[in-house]
Each structure stands twice: as C-alpha cells, then as structure tokens.
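Task: sequence design from structure.
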C-alpha cells in the first residue's frame, strides 16, 4: 500500500473537477462543500506533518468526496432523532417528555405550516388573544375560574412570583425548598423573581402555626411546592392545602401551589388539579408535558383577578406560548374533555395494566426469537417520571436480553436505527414495553436484532 507524501496532496481546484465532487456540489451549497473538502485535506496534511503514514488512496478525489459527504451529513439529518423509549420511564425529560397524541401532533404541524387565527377574532375582525383558544377548555376541564398558559412551568412559577410577590415575602416550608432536575431550584427561582423567601418549619416537619406566625405586613403569599421527585418518610409533617388556604384567607394573603406534574385525572396518589383548586388555592401552576401528556407548557389556573394581572404583566410577553403549543395543548385538553384520554400516550401508558403489558412483552419476546435474539420475559417496575409518583413504581413487563456484555449491546442499540434506549438492571439489559409506542414494536425488534447480530466474536 503506497504511502501518501505531502507534495502529493491535491489542490482544492483539482479535486473540484472530479465527478463525485461535482455531484456533491449539486446537492449542497458550494461554500460548505469547499469547507468540507478543505477540512479533509487539512486533516491529511496534519497527519503527514506529524509523521504519520497515510494511505495514498485517502487523497483520491473520490475518497475525499466520500469523507466530505460524511462531513456534510449534519446538513441533511434532522436535529432530533426519533428514539424508542424502552426505559419504562413514561415522562422522560431527557427523551423529550410527553409524546403527543396523534391529533395533537397533527394540530401543531397544521398550525406550524400556515397562517392561523392565533390572535385574531374572526367574528369581529380585530385583534384577539392566543389565550382564548385555551382558557375555556382548561376551565371547563378543571373547574378553574381562569387560566393562562406560558412557555413552561418554571416560567409559570416565575411569572406568578415576580408579578404578585416582588419585593414582598413568600412563606415556604423548609421541607419544600426543593431542586427539580438540575437547574430548577425553588430558592433560586424565588430570588430571581424578586420575591423574598421566608423559610418556616424544619426539614422534616412544618406545622400550620409555623406559617401563621411568619405572616406579617410584608407577606404576599403562602407557597406550597410539590416535592416532586423526592419523598420524606419517618417523623414528618406537611400542612394540607385546605388548611393553608384557610390560614391564607384569614391573614389576607395569597395561597399559591406549584403542583409540578399536575394530574388532570386521577393517577396513583397524585392530587388532581380539580381537587387542589377545590381545596382553595388562589393560583396553581403545573407543566403541560408531564402527567397532562401535552406539549411543553406552563399552565396557571385560578382566580380571575390574579390571572388578569399576570396577563398584563410585561414579563408575560417574554413567556407566552407559540402557535404550535397553543394548537397541541388545546387538542390534548379536548381529548380529555371528550373522554378520549386513552388517545393521550402518557395517560394510556400510565393506565396500562400489567396483564396487557405481559402480553405485549410475550409478543416482543416471540418476535425477537424469530429474529435470532434470546430473551426472557421479566416482570419490571416502570416509573411515571417527571417528578410524579416517585414512590409508586408501575408494575410492568418486558424482556431481559440474554447477552453477556449488556453494556456493549446497549451501546450498539443506542447507535442503531432507530436508537433504542433500555435499562441495565442486575447486569441485564431490560426493555420495558410500557413506554414503547404500539407502532414501534416491529422497529424495536428489528433494531435489537441488528445490534445483537453485530455481537463481537468471543475469544
Ligand atoms: C417539573 C417541575 C417544575 C418545572 O416545570 P417545567 O415544566 O419543567 O418548567 C416546577 N415545579 C415542580 C414542582 C416541578 O415538578
């Protein structure tokens, strides 16, 4: 095999004449093709200068065209790749949280590609509000007096505190000074909003009197925060929402509740949004893409006069949802209202019964066996995720792949097409069928079989 010499490196203008490079130029903008080829040539030059032996073929224009094409791949690949979630974690933040209902995704796509009456009153022929597409639906579903939707729940909490409590005190239990997934920390959000944190109680126990004694002329609100992904056990005490609501009313301050996940219908022991509102919260905040199963959004529900102030706050403009979110969330809420909540994937996955999951896991196992993959049917525990129900594992079923290097297999599956994300449990790679969408079952089996067949020879 001939070695490349520095002086044999072709000049860019020579490479450009080659038919395969011409084909690249027909597909991609000229400047990007030139950049990609220059980068290839520069890479070879550096290797030669470092004294490395480089095969002469690598400097052939057709080889350069091939590597340049690979280098340009990012231009033709979508930014986000569809993956198969076989982790059993339903609301998986790293995997984009809620997969939308088919009709909700369609509504977002339709809104995206055309003009819509987002802020236009067709009847009157004048400006309308984007919130008018959501508020009536959300109020009807939850019993709330008024509703406002913003970009996400962090934005909702921030808007509420900045608008209603800036420069004033907000009373919060020390047991609820929580961090939710890395960057969202209640004390930090509160500091950013300009509200002054007044901690009460202790880490494990906070009583009604702790709140009551803390209320003074500087108090704007009592805040209750869903502890999300952590639970306290043992010698603990947390004050109920209805007691806090009563105390807040008696003291003439607001009672705010950050629900985090917020379940529209009963799911495990999560309080439903309706019941929280009934217990007397003046405003509550929650995510649109956790248990609700809709697009990323922050949903604020509660008193009309307060929602009106939020809507008029200058900050709202920076946090408002876009037309795709409005379309997808409205459609998701409509599905609940029509009693078609099983069309919302997150809801259906949470409601899936173990016996049905067992059948799906058995079918997957049979499919895999047909493709030459050994696996065993196994009972598993999935999780709701998104900070909901951390102590209520979801009894589920799946398959354990009988492979002696599960990490290698998992790695190959993640790099496959489509990528498959499972879970390593007791040194086995397991795939939980709960979070696999029905139409993905075939693709899942084939992707696993491909990764399995690439199994390196054992020595
Ligand atoms: C998830 C969560 C948030 C943040 O919501 P995002 O929609 O991710 O911005 C805030 N508060 C609680 C209690 C949460 O669980």
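Answer:
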């Amino acid at each position: 095999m001939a070695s490349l010499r520095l002086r044999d490196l072709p000049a860019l203008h020579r490479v450009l004449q080659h038919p395969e490079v011409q084909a690249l130029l027909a597909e991609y903008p000229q400047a990007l093709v030139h950049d990609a080829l220059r980068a290839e040539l520069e890479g070879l030059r550096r290797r030669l200068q470092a004294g490395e032996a480089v095969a002469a073929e690598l400097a052939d224009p057709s080889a350069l065209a091939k590597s340049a094409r690979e280098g340009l791949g990012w231009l033709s690949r979508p930014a986000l790749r569809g993956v198969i979630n076989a982790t059993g974690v339903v609301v998986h933040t790293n995997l984009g949280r809620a997969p939308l209902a088919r009709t909700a995704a369609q509504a977002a796509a339709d809104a995206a590609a055309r003009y819509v009456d987002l802020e236009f009153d067709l009847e009157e022929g004048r400006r309308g509000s984007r919130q008018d597409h959501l508020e009536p639906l959300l109020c009807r579903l939850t019993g709330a007096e008024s509703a406002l939707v913003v970009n996400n729940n962090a934005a909702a909490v921030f808007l509420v505190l900045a608008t209603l409590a800036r420069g004033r005190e907000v009373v919060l239990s020390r047991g609820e000074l929580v961090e939710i997934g890395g960057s969202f920390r209640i004390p930090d959000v509160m500091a950013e909003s300009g509200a002054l944190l007044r901690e009460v109680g202790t880490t494990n126990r906070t009583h009604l009197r702790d709140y009551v004694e803390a209320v003074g002329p500087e108090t704007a609100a009592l805040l209750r925060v869903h502890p999300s992904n952590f639970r306290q056990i043992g010698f603990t005490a947390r004050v109920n929402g209805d007691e806090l609501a009563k105390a807040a009313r008696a003291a003439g301050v607001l009672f705010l509740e950050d629900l985090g996940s917020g379940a529209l219908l009963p799911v495990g022991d999560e309080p439903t949004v309706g019941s929280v509102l009934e217990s007397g919260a003046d405003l509550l905040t929650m995510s649109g893409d956790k248990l609700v199963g809709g697009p990323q959004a922050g949903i604020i529900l509660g008193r009309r006069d307060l929602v009106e102030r939020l809507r008029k706050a200058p900050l709202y403009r920076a946090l408002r949802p876009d037309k795709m979110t409005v379309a997808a969330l409205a459609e998701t809420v409509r599905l609940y209202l029509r009693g078609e909540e099983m069309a919302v994937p997150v809801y259906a996955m949470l409601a899936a019964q173990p016996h049905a999951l067992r059948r799906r896991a058995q079918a997957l196992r049979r499919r895999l066996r047909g493709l030459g993959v050994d696996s065993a049917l196994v009972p598993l525990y999935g999780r709701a995720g998104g900070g909901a129900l951390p102590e209520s594992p979801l009894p589920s079923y799946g398959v354990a792949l009988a492979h002696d290097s599960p990490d290698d297999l998992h790695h190959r599956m993640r790099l496959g097409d489509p990528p498959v994300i499972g879970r390593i449990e007791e040194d086995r790679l397991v795939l939980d069928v709960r979070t696999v969408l029905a139409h993905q079952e075939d693709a899942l089996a084939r992707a696993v079989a491909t990764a399995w067949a690439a199994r390196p020879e054992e020595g």
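The mean pLDDT is 93.
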